[in-house]
Design brief:
Layout (H helix, E strand, L loop, with lengths): L2 E2 L8 E2 L13 E4 L6 E8 L8 E7 L3 E12 L2 E2 L5 E6 L7 E4 L7 E3 L3 E2 L2 H4 L6 E8 L5 E2 L2 E10 L1
Antiparallel strand pairs: 1-2, 3-4, 4-14, 5-12, 6-10, 6-14, 7-13, 8-9, 8-12, 9-11
Length: about 160
Amino acid sequence: MSYENSAGLGVNNQYGVRDTQDSLAISGGKLPNVGGVSEAVVYFTGDELSSSDVDTSLTLPAGARIKDVTLEIIEAMTMGNADNDIEVGTNGSVATNGAQFDNTTGAVGAYAPASLNGTWGSGAVLASTAVSFIVTGTTAGATGGKGRAVIRYTKI
């Protein structure tokens, strides 16, 4: 490896590969990893969430086994109703294949899923899987605020 000491302060810089996160439609990135646990982070705003699937442009690889999903509300958002659930999962079937966060109030904090459903909870996804968000419940939706979801998985 090459080193540089151009500052004259006895500080060396090592040159090498500088990986960056892949861009997602909602924003965030996927941190590459070989042979271990990989993490994908998806950032969103409350205004982007709705009662319809919101595509993140994140695709989990075939054979991915979901270890866990964490939802973090960074800035408080106003939910459409107290019974609203934020869900993240397979585009088109989030309710049956994904992570469900029950009665999400929109308050700042980290949330563990009430359940991992379908292939997200019982095995590996068989094909490449597009990931999306949806809000369910009465007057499903949110306004304002910011959040992120961290999806940890292994690839078998």
